[in-house]
Amino acid sequence: MHVTFLGTSGAVPTTERNTSAVLVRREGERFLFDVGEGTQRQMMRFGTGFDVSHVFLSHLHGDHVLGLPGLCQTWDFNDREAPLAVHVPPGTRRDVERLLRATNTNPSYPVRIDEVRPGEAALRADDYEVRAFRTEHRTISVGYALIEDERKGRFDRERAEELGVPVGPMFSRLHAGEPVELDDGTVVRPEQVVGAPRPGRHLVYTGDTRPVEATVEAAANADLLIHDATFADDHAERAPQTGHSTAREAALVAARAGAKRLALTHVSTRYGGYSTPLLEDAREVFDGEVFVAEDGQELDVPYPEEPQSEG
């Protein structure tokens, strides 16, 4: 699982930060979380590729959606044939349809716009899901949690051979959870040679939001929480007025959730190229790894037992 921050600014872009967009690559699939104006330029600039199958919109403020019509048109110009699914908060499907129609965007490839309510799975695949959760902003909004299923435990080949299991198909059957019978009638059970299930990866994207309990629940033990952190403490009074969070509030959410890493994003232009106050506020209340995301920043989200890496 690989994350590229395409846009990390608040409502207004700057020369250093574009408006909101995060691209996640997982096992060959690409997902876009929000599509601020200029997202396709950022995709070209940072070399992410355009092969996106699902777009997840947290809400319909312009700095999160105005890049969608242009990106859809570019896909059309490039003769895209693969279907596109756009997942949106409840009650906003027609608004997204009107946004595309207003720009005369009528792609030749299939586009499906699905409303998703908090608690529902926007996308369910064989071994993971993307689930919406409630957020609190000045409009209808949701966040998204990408949660992988548990993986099989590790197969202990040495132990299996000690028990007399011959190398071959019986290994696979045991790893799949099926007992096997040896030639001498001995039955070997999966729990004798397969370890405990191992957790999958867990990524959470809030979009714009106040700190809410639903995020704490959605981000429980998350490997990466990407949270609105528009303000530092010096402008804390603006956060509730505008439906955003401070870096300290985002960090408190991460601490309560037990998240391993916290990415602070949606940075106000007040902080320009100097985001140290955000980082200092967050570090006072969160002991895990925390950073202020920058446009073009890339990082891997490894399996929980693997080492982390960042680029």
Q: Can you describe this structure?
A:
This protein is α/β, with parallel strands linked by helices and 311 residues long. 25% of the residues lie in helices and 23% in strands. The protein has eleven helices and 16 strands. The strands form three sheets. A seven-stranded mixed sheet has the order 6-5-4-3-2-1-16. It has a seven-stranded mixed sheet with strand order 7-8-9-12-13-14-15. A two-stranded antiparallel sheet has the order 10-11. Strand 8 and strand 9 form a beta hairpin. Helix 10 packs parallel to helix 11. It is globular, with a radius of gyration of 22 Å. The mean pLDDT is 94.
**DSSP E strands, number:** 16
Order of strands in the sheet with most strands: 6-5-4-3-2-1-16
Helix content: 25-40%
Q: Between the first and last Cα atoms, what is the distance in angstroms?
A: 13 Å
How would you characterize the largest beta sheet?
Answer: 7 strands, mixed
Unreliable spans: none
In short:
The chain has 311 residues and is an alpha/beta fold.
Name its key features:
25% helix, 16 strands, 7-stranded mixed beta sheet, alpha/beta, globular, single chain, 311 residues
